[in-house]
Design goal:
476 residues; PH-domain like; two-stranded antiparallel ribbon; 18 helices; 9 strands; binds zinc ion
């Protein structure tokens, strides 16, 4: 019943995400569940036979112990009236018992190997079957040692030696043992070890070294390792990125850490490009916030005055809704924007206008765009289809400079959220946006803005993605 629920959840998840790997997982889960179902049915039908074979194996085992070297399987089979159909099953059951006793201490001596081989011969079990049973028993012991070894999240040399000895008893190395019996469990164990190191939002050099050593001792190749840690590695990088950006700046050190994480943990170029873009954008925005506006030369869309400096040019959409006596009237305009040190210029096919930064009475960012209040022309909402964040910020800073108001810099300490708070908030929301559950473009957000008296404590900080953060500004 439990398995059915697991399968259902996975299928549901795969529908939502439409993700192939989930579909495959779901399929595997389903197959395992069906297999399990079949074996349960089979064993239910054969319950009577099972009991009989167990009973036979018990008496044969006693007889073996009593006669020792003098034991003969044929004679015992006849003595206890074991039918021809049960014969090999009883022999296997007895041999499994020997294996279990041998491996109880999680090791097998040369003497034990010899005895097992002799017993298998006495019981007339085929060589293939013996080797299969030996492998199963060794794999079982291997797994117990592996789990115990990983309790401290790493495998030391002694533990590696023990694993290697167990594997060698059935002709395996640690690597081939892992690949043959623990391919999926191995990935899960590696992922779990990595997650324990990375869940605090950082990966120390020593932790990474220990992790790599464990991976190497288990003989897991790099591509398999990267695949196994795909999710937690991305989460770690998102966490480090959000941490770094919480002060609206990325220091040289933070950039170095991110670069090193990317090159060590990620082999997906799309994700690397996304993170690099975030870093570049944050640095670029920090420069603008400091008042270092970029000069772009004279754009062809507008005739600049002598000495006027252009900061930005790109497509813009302008919307203005007015209440007239005849009713509501909405004006929409698509054109090109140029932002300079003194004004904003909009050029469209049938209309062009400009607003001096000094004529602007106020501005406010909303999900619709930048709302401009002005006593002259140009009041309305502006959105920029390309580079909207950049355009907003440039315009806002240019307005501030033209009006000589103090530009808020990113290094303002009053809105600094401490690392402890960030760590707890990240854990609280599981590295996801509180509004929509997105796991990327995450930002630490003051629920009540610092400017309105909000604090930097746990209760006033949440995790929002950029889209939801922008939407939130509508409501404040
Ligand atoms: Zn969101």
């Amino acid at each position: 019943m439990k398995s059915v629920i697991v399968v259902d959840l996975r299928l549901k998840q795969s529908n939502q995400n439409n993700h192939t790997s989930f579909n495959m997982q779901a399929a595997k889960g389903l197959i395992n569940w069906i297999k399990m179902g079949i074996s349960e049915v089979t064993s239910a039908i054969d319950a009577e036979r099972e009991a009989r074979i167990n009973a036979h194996a018990g008496v044969i085992n006693l007889e073996f112990g009593r006669l020792k070297k003098g034991f003969a399987f044929d004679a015992a089979v006849e003595k206890f009236g074991i039918s021809g159909g049960d014969r090999s099953a009883v022999a296997e059951r007895v041999y499994r018992g020997f294996l279990a006793r041998t491996w109880k201490d999680l090791s097998q001596t040369d003497r034990e190997t010899e005895l097992l081989s002799w017993a298998a011969g006495c019981l007339g079990i085929s060589t293939d079957k013996v080797s299969q049973l030996n492998q199963e028993a060794a794999a079982n012991a291997f797994q117990q040692v592996l789990v115990a070894a990983l309790a401290d999240n790493q495998i030391n040399d002694a533990e590696a030696g023990q694993l290697s000895q167990i594997a060698a008893r059935c002709g395996f190395t640690v690597q081939t043992m892992m690949a043959t019996f623990f391919e999926h469990k191995g990935e899960a164990l590696i992922r779990s070890a990595f997650t324990q190191y990375s869940s605090d939002g950082k990966l120390e050099r020593d932790e990474w070294k220990q992790f790599l050593q464990t991976v190497e001792q288990l003989g897991v190749p790099r591509d398999k390792m990267l695949h196994a840690i795909r999710q937690p590695a991305r989460q770690l990088i998102e966490h480090v990125l959000a941490d770094a950006r919480s002060d609206k700046e990325i220091s040289e050190r933070e950039e170095k850490v991110l670069s090193s994480l990317l090159s060590n943990l990620i082999d997906d170029t799309t994700f690397v490009a996304y993170v690099r873009e975030q870093i570049a954008e944050t640095k670029w925005m920090a420069e603008i916030e400091k008042g270092r506006l970029p000069s772009i030369g004279s754009p062809p869309e507008a005739a600049l005055r002598a000495g006027e400096i252009a900061y930005y040019s790109g497509p813009v959409r302008y919307v203005r809704t007015r209440e007239l006596s005849s009713g509501k009237k909405t004006e929409e305009l698509d054109g090109l924007a140029v932002i300079t040190d003194t004004r904003f210029i909009l050029s469209a096919t049938d209309k062009s206008f400009q607003i001096s930064h000094r004529k602007i009475l106020g501005h406010r960012l909303s999900s619709a765009g930048l709302e401009i209040r002005s006593d002259g022309k140009g009041a309305g909402t502006y959105s920029f289809p390309v580079d909207h964040d950049k355009a907003f910020t440039i315009w806002r800073v240019a307005i501030g400079r033209a009006n000589q108001t103090i530009v808020e810099t990113g290094t303002n300490n009053t809105r600094h959220i401490s690392r402890d708070v960030r760590q707890r908030v990240w854990q609280r929301y599981g590295g996801r946006c509180v509004e929509c559950g997105a796991a990327d473009y995450l930002e630490f957000d003051h629920i009540i803005p610092v400017a309105k008296g909000g604090s930097n404590s746990d209760s006033n900080v949440q995790l929002l993605c950029r889209k939801c953060n922008l939407k939130k500004s509508d409501r404040i």
